[in-house]
Predict the 3D structure of the following.
Amino acid sequence: MLKTRVIPTLLWKDFGLVKGKGFDSWRRVGTVLPAIKVYNTRDVDELILLDITATAQEREPDYEAIRDFTAECSVPLTLGGGVNDLEVIRKLLYSGADKVAINSAAYARPQLITEAAQRFGSQCVVVSIDARRDAHGRYRCYRCCGQEDTGRELVAWAMEVESLGAGEILLTSIERDGSLQGYDVGMIRQVARAVNIPVIAAGGAGEASHFHQALVQGGANAVAAASVFHFTELTPEEVKQYLRERGIAVRNTLQRDAA
């Protein structure tokens, strides 16, 4: 049985880390390298680092900085932002990334998912999906940091990226992002029931019970969060202890490392 992962998300903008609400109103929350060093000492399973301006600025990731980050990171690291071809993916993996998240480029050229999976393995390919409800209550997918409606319906797109070879889906609710009001459990449930690959739920966690809801009611395989770890006293260790006490199988990273 696969154990549940608790994954802090770091949003990298220009020279530091930010966190917003609804993919907007970005607030500075520190810098990347110290944050990675802090999480190294906490019971986290993985980290996700997303360069949120690379696509809009039409530039490649900063590989030199990424090499510095990965050299200090002691847990698996997923990198995203500006990923638009196989060469960028190769450079990110060569720079120390364990997985690469693809978002905007996948809508323009879905075959990139298949090409990446065939060349590097599906286990390296995370497709990031940002979604919100339309006026009719249906979930639609957005690209470019939630700014552009792709015209894609959420569940159909999730099923398509699975068929193309994605190893995981990082599913973020734009509406719940930064709200601390809880995950969109209904959205998570729709995707989790439609695909057979792991779904990482993101967007809205504000307390330990929210993580439990995403897993038990939503059917997520892993839970990612940012604001709750930046702006409250809740730690990943406490989230995992809460889940463990309620029968959720979680990894015990600290004991593993001590051994």
Q: What stands out?
A: Residues 141 and 157 are 8 Å apart (CA to CA). Residues 255-259 have pLDDT under 50 and may be disordered. Residues 5-258 form a domain with the TIM Barrel fold (CATH 3.20.20.70). Residues 154-164 form the longest helix (11 residues).
